[in-house]
Design a protein that fits this description.
Blueprint lengths: L2 H17 L5 E2 L2 E2 H18 L1 H8 L6 E5 L7 H8 L4 E6 L2 H13 L5 E5 L12 E7 L8 H11 E12 L18 H10 L2 E7 L5 E8 L8
Parallel strand pairs: 3-4, 3-6, 4-5, 6-7
Antiparallel strand pairs: 1-2, 7-9, 8-9
This protein binds S-adenosylmethionine.
The site of S-adenosylmethionine has 18 residues, from strand 4.
Length: 226
């Protein structure tokens, strides 16, 4: 091997050591997962338009918000800042590894009004009437029993609380981002199921290129027991 190719190999090795993420574990979460999440976030901003979503939600400081199916916490920093010092964000998910990512992010960004909640498929495990707004982004199409979860939300939301559902549209124009069209849930079905659980559609926003954005208010509060 010539001197030139040896130095190229050394440079290549140095590059790999520097940039290939290791499997170092942080709680339940690997450094690779964190790096992957950051990459996904910046690509997603282009179509998720988080600042427009937050402007449309028009939240007041002090509000209590549940991010149901929070995943790794894409919306958590936005919700946390909107809720402010006197408010709280309950980051709810059925997967504990997602909550580990949220906790790590909250520590890194110094978000001290965020609580993580390990939930069950049809039970958010939130206190009755403890939340002003529940958001579900890209979760509905994953739900095994959506009506039972909506029923639970009708009990954890305050009277006249609100529910925002953002999920992938079923039309061909929205196909390039998100799960296969056959796995998605049409917005008409979401509206019908939410209405059966005691919600009324307040508003639909149509500025997102791949998703519908539905805002409901709770009109029938259901029973008190969870
Ligand atoms: C595609 S991810 C979306 C995560 C996040 N909302 C976002 O927009 O990036 C869906 C998340 O919903 C969670 N999930 C699925 N069913 C759920 C349920 N019944 N209750 C709470 N979380 C649920 C999954 O564990 C997963 O983290």
């Amino acid at each position: 091997m010539g001197v030139q190719s040896l130095s190229i190999n050394i440079l290549l090795l140095a590059f790999l050591l520097e940039f290939v993420p290791t499997q170092r574990s942080v709680g339940n979460v690997t450094a690779q997962e964190v790096a992957g999440d950051e990459f996904t976030r910046s690509k997603r901003d282009e179509w998720q338009l988080p600042n427009r979503v937050m402007a449309a939600l028009d939240l007041k400081q002090g509000i209590h918000i549940a991010d149901v199916g929070c995943g790794p916490g894409y919306f958590v920093p936005y919700l946390s800042r909107a809720a402010g010092q006197g408010g709280r964000v309950f980051a709810v998910d059925i997967q504990s590894r997602m909550l580990s990512l949220v906790e790590r992010q909250a520590a890194r960004l110094d978000l001290d009004n965020v609580d993580t909640v390990l939930s069950k498929e049809t039970d958010t495990r939130l206190e009755p009437r403890s939340v002003d707004l529940a958001v579900m982004v890209n979760v509905y199409y994953e739900l095994g029993a959506p009506e039972a979860l909506l029923e639970n939300l009708s009990k954890v939301l305050e009277t006249e609380g609100q529910l925002a559902i953002i999920d992938y549209r079923v039309d061909k124009n929205a196909e390039s981002v998100g799960p296969p069209l056959s796995h998605r849930v049409a917005q008409e079905r979401v509206i019908a199921e939410a209405e059966r659980a005691g919600f009324r559609l307040l508003k639909t926003h149509d500025f997102l290129p791949y998703q519908y954005f539905l805002l409901f208010e709770l009109v029938s509060t259901g029973g008190e027991g969870l």
